[in-house]
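ugh finaly. both done.
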Amino acid sequence: MSIPRDQLVEDRTGFVKFARVFSNVVSPPVMFAALGIAFALYERPFWPGIGWAALYAFIVSLAPIIGVLYMLKKGIISELHMSNTRERHLPYIMAVAFAALAYGLITWFQGPALLRCLALFNIIELSALGIINMFWLISMHSTGIMATFVLTGLVFSWEAGLAIAFPFVIAVSWVRLYLKRHTPAQIVAGLALGTVTVLSLTFIGCFS
């Protein structure tokens, strides 16, 4: 695969800079934090929902980000987007562990069922991404954004999914290609993984 457009600091100007910032804003941790808030408030309105959403967002989204930033500071990883796939192993393991912790706490304290299913999804999705990453680079961004679209459709409505989430599927896929972070095959594989993982959980009663 060719060198990413935003690999070098001096190249991060103009539209490349915008695309990089957009890519960070719609990264999977951010999107799942937003989904966690929506799901928690949908099932447990007001303060109970806010509390559970905060717990989920901190454990599943914020804690792994803090961990990655710490690894970046200590030189364990060379750059935030981890172009070197060998640097992704430890962050994936860490993210799966945090998702498992969230699942355990939400289950033990009888939190919102939607959040419990979302944490279970995170465990499966991140584990699959980590395993695939050992052999091939797959797009985590396209996996996450496609899952966001499907989850929005299943839980709220497909009209809401198409109106709110699907434009982001197109935008994220295009931006990752524009930045040369992924090939079309890696994007499509991510889209497929996100879809299959979410739909597979509906067979055990999740998101229905």
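ok and the 2nd:
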Amino acid sequence: MKVNTKIRYGLRMLIAIGQSGKLMNTTQLGKDMLVSPKYLRKLAGPLEKAGLIKSVQGIYGGYELNKKPEEITLLMLMDAFNERISLTDCLLGKKCELRDSCLAKQVWEMLEKTIEKHFLPVSLHDILTNKVRKH
């Protein structure tokens, strides 16, 4: 299982903004994250639309969190990009010849539910304060 690039960098962007506690533009974020500012601008759109960050215009503008870190969860990040962690294509509803008779499907469903239960409720605050292990 691999987490999508948008989710990985979106989370890193939220962490960087949350750690700074101040406005950060994509040039600053790009230097800190070793990522293209252009790519970060693409990520900012869905994050802003979801209400996780807000942009401040102007010469000293940039992005800041739009919610408290305690209110931002990994599930909200996934929703911002309309993504889900899925272990197999069959759980995404894709056509499979063995769909009705596959005994392995129950294993993938159980693992996916475990991920959703334990990891998606993790907040940005949990991450920033290194409390993820306690979930």
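summary for the 2nd one i guess: Residues 5-134 form a domain with the Arc Repressor Mutant, subunit A fold (CATH 1.10.10.10).
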